[in-house]
Amino acid sequence: MPRPPQAAHRRRVLSRGGLTDPVPHHLRADAHPEVPALILHGAADPVTGVEQARGLAGRLPRATLGVVHDGVHDVLNDASHRIAAATVVLWLERLRADRRDLRPILTVVEADSNSVARAPA
Known about the structure:
Elements: H1 25-28, E1 37-42, H2 50-59, E2 63-68, H3 81-97, E3 108-109, E4 116-117
Parallel strand pairs: 1-2
Antiparallel strand pairs: 3-4
């Protein structure tokens, strides 16, 4: 009996460590580092350190980095997947609302203080 196909997120696309390999020349022309980018990273990711995500965000001029506390490698398929998905939706809404300066459309104010905590999206 044939095996059922694996879900897309379960298939191995790259070999371990493959993300550090140089980008193939034929793909470089398609890279657009100036476009907005949302980078979501799990703080407890055992595969990729948070510093790598910070480094990537630092190299992209229009990047937004969201670090999911206690999140693992696949933040959209983790216990905190709803907050990660909500962050994606808010980020996309912000892009739609104002493509030029990416002003935040939501700030979170702590009820017990006067401080404002800005959401990562």
